[in-house]
Design goal:
Oligomer: heterodimer
Low-confidence stretches of chain B: none
Number of strands of chain A: 6
Order of helices and strands of chain B: HHHHHHH
Strand content of chain A: 5-15%
Number of helices of chain A: 12
CATH architecture of the largest domain in chain A: 3-Layer(aba) Sandwich
Helix content of chain A: 40-55%
Number of helices of chain B: 7
CATH topology of the largest domain in chain A: Rossmann fold
Chain lengths: 294, 212
C-alpha cells in the first residue's frame, strides 16, 4: 500500500491535468443528465419574474465578457425566455466594455429566433453599449434617454413604442444583471439602494460569495450563483413551462444543465484526489515526503 | 460561412495554444498570450474612442460648440493626465488626478454608506427579544465581524482576553476563504467546460461530420 501511495505522490502532475480534461470532456460527449436541485435564492428570483404581468418591463444588463460567458450566457438566455413566455417586455443593454455588447447581440438574436411572434421595439429593445457604468446608472435614475439617446441601431428612444412609458429606471419592474466584476455591485448599491428598483443578480461563481451579504440584507430579490444558479433557473423554467424542454434537449446547444454534469464529475474527482492525497501524505509521513516530480 | 469557419478554426487553435501551457511553457502559448493582451488593449482603445470620446466629447462640440464649450474642461483634464510623461511639467497631471480622485470619493462615499454599510448593519441588528432563525444568523454575523476585527487589530499586543476572540476570528476567516475557494473552483471549471464544449461541438464535430 505504501508503495502505491509513494508512487502517487511522485506522479507527474500533468497526468492529473489529463485526467481532469477527460473527466470534463466525457460528460460533454456523453451527457449524463444528472438531476439539478434548486436553492432558495434562485427560486426567489424565478418567482419574482413569474409574478410580473404581461406588458411589464424588465431591464436585462449584460455586464460580462467572453471570459465568463459559459456561466453568464445561460442565465441571461433563460431570463429572456421566461420574459417572452410571459409577454414581459425586455430592455437589453451592455455595460461591460470587453465584449458585453457582442454577447448581448448574440443572445438576443438566438432567443428571439425561438419566439417568431416577437416584434423589435414592442416586445424587446436593444439599447447597446455605454461606457462608464456608474455614471450611466446615475443618469438612468433621471432619464433613460439621457444615457441612451438611441438604441443599438441608432433609432431615437422616442420612436420606439415600448420605451414611451419608460422614462427612467423607476418605470421598470426589475433589473437583472448577468455580471462579472464590480458592475453588478453598482446595480445594487446605486440603483437599488438609491432609486429603489428591485435587482436580481447572476454573478460568476467567483464573485458569488460577496453577493450573499447583499442577499441576506434584503438588497437583492434573488441570485443565480454561477453555472449552478443558471442550471437551477433552467430547471425551474422547464418545470413551469414544459414546452421549454425542447430548447434544452438539443445536445448541440450549450446549457448550464449540461455543464453541471461535468461539474459534478470533476468535483467528485477532485474530492477523491484530496482524500487520496491526504491518505498518501499520512501513510508516507513516517518515511518522509518523496521528492516532488518536475 | 467561410468567415464563420475561419473564426472557429482560429479560436480553436488559440484555445489549444493556451491550454498547451499545462504541458509546459512553449512558443505557441506565448504567442496566444501576447496576442490576447494586444487584441484586448486594442479593442479597449477602440471602445473608448468610439463609445466615450466620440459621442460624449467630439460629437457634441462639433455639432454645437456654443452650447457644449464646457466639455473642454473634462477634455483638458483628460489630456493633463498624460502630461506626467513630460518630466518638466509632470506636476500638472496631479491637478487632474486630484479632481478625479475627489469626484470618485464623493460618488463612492454615498454608494458605500447608503448601498452597503447602513442596509447591512440595519439588517444585522435584529431585536433579541424574539429568538428565531434570522436572529440566530444575525448573532453569528455579529460575533464573526467582531472577532475578525479583533484579529486584525494590530495596535496592541493580544492578551488573555483578546487572544481567544482573535482565534475565533481566524475560524470565521478560514470558513469564508473555504467558501470563496469552492466557488472559485466551480467558476474555473465552468470556463473549462465552456472551452471544451466549444472545441467539441463547434470545431471537432463538424470537422468529422459528427451529428449530435
Amino acid at each position: 500500500m505504501k508503495r502505491i501511495f509513494t508512487w502517487l505522490l511522485k506522479l507527474d502532475r500533468r497526468w492529473i491535468f489529463l485526467f481532469v480534461l477527460f473527466s470534463v470532456a466525457t460528460p460533454i460527449v456523453f451527457p449524463i443528465g444528472l438531476p439539478v436541485t434548486t436553492t432558495d435564492s434562485t427560486r426567489r428570483a424565478f418567482e419574482y419574474l413569474e409574478s410580473l404581468k404581461p406588458g411589464d418591463t424588465i431591464w436585462l444588463s449584460f455586464d460580462y465578457g467572453p471570459s465568463s460567458a459559459p456561466e453568464n450566457d445561460p442565465m441571461a438566455e433563460a431570463v429572456m425566455r421566461q420574459c417572452f413566455l410571459k409577454h414581459v417586455k425586455v430592455v437589453v443593454l451592455a455595460l461591460y466594455p470587453l465584449g458585453g455588447l457582442g454577447l448581448a447581440n448574440t443572445a438576443v438574436a438566438k432567443v428571439t429566433a425561438e419566439f417568431p411572434g416577437l416584434r423589435y421595439g414592442e416586445d424587446y429593445v436593444n439599447l447597446g453599449y455605454k461606457d462608464g457604468a456608474a455614471a450611466v446608472m446615475r443618469r438612468l435614475g433621471e432619464d433613460i434617454a439621457g444615457a441612451f439617446p438611441t438604441d443599438v441601431n441608432g433609432t431615437p428612444l422616442s420612436r420606439i413604442p415600448m420605451m414611451r412609458g419608460v422614462h427612467d429606471i423607476r418605470n421598470v419592474k426589475l433589473v437583472f444583471t448577468a455580471a462579472t466584476g464590480v458592475i453588478g455591485e453598482w446595480w445594487i448599491t446605486q440603483v437599488h439602494s438609491q432609486i429603489g428598483t428591485p435587482v436580481v443578480i447572476g454573478p460568476t461563481a467567483v464573485s458569488a460569495p460577496k453577493y450573499y451579504a447583499y442577499l441576506n440584507a434584503g438588497q437583492l430579490v434573488g441570485m443565480l450563483s454561477g453555472m449552478k444558479g443558471a442550471a437551477e433557473y433552467e430547471r425551474l423554467l422547464r418545470d413551469t413551462y414544459p414546452q421549454m424542454a425542447r430548447f434544452y434537449k438539443s445536445t448541440r446547444t450549450f446549457t448550464a444543465t449540461k455543464g453541471m454534469d461535468g461539474q459534478t464529475v470533476i468535483h467528485t474527482v477532485m474530492i477523491a484526489f484530496i482524500i487520496l492525497g491526504n491518505l498518501a501524505f499520512l501513510v508516507t509521513r513516517e518515511t518522509g515526503r518523496p521528492e516532488a516530480a518536475a | 460561412m467561410i468567415q464563420d469557419a475561419l473564426g472557429i478554426w482560429i479560436a480553436a487553435l488559440l484555445t489549444l495554444a493556451a491550454l498547451s501551457f499545462l504541458y509546459k511553457d512553449n512558443p505557441f502559448f506565448r504567442f496566444a498570450e501576447s496576442l490576447f493582451a494586444g487584441v484586448s488593449l486594442g479593442y479597449y482603445v477602440g471602445i473608448v474612442l468610439n463609445q466615450t470620446l466620440e459621442p460624449n466629447l467630439f460629437e457634441p462640440m462639433r455639432q454645437d460648440f456654443g452650447q457644449n464649450w464646457d466639455l473642454l474642461v473634462p477634455g483638458l483634464l483628460g489630456v493633463m493626465l498624460y502630461v506626467r510623461y513630460v518630466p518638466k511639467i509632470a506636476w500638472v497631471s496631479r491637478y487632474a488626478l486630484s479632481i478625479y480622485v475627489t469626484y470618485y470619493i464623493g460618488v463612492e462615499f454615498t454608494r458605500r454608506i447608503h448601498g452597503e454599510v447602513l442596509p447591512q448593519i440595519g439588517r444585522a441588528m435584529l431585536p433579541l427579544s424574539r429568538f428565531d432563525l434570522p436572529t440566530l444568523y444575525s448573532a453569528v454575523f455579529v460575533v464573526g465581524v467582531f472577532s475578525v476585527l479583533i484579529y486584525f487589530f494590530f495596535s496592541r499586543e493580544q492578551n488573555a482576553v483578546t487572544r481567544p476572540i482573535a482565534r475565533l476570528g481566524v475560524w470565521f476567516l478560514m470558513i469564508s476563504f473555504g467558501a470563496a475557494f469552492g466557488f472559485t473552483v466551480m467558476g474555473r471549471v465552468a470556463l473549462l467546460i465552456g472551452r471544451l464544449n466549444f472545441l467539441l461541438q463547434a470545431w471537432l464535430y463538424p470537422l468529422f461530420g459528427i451529428t449530435s
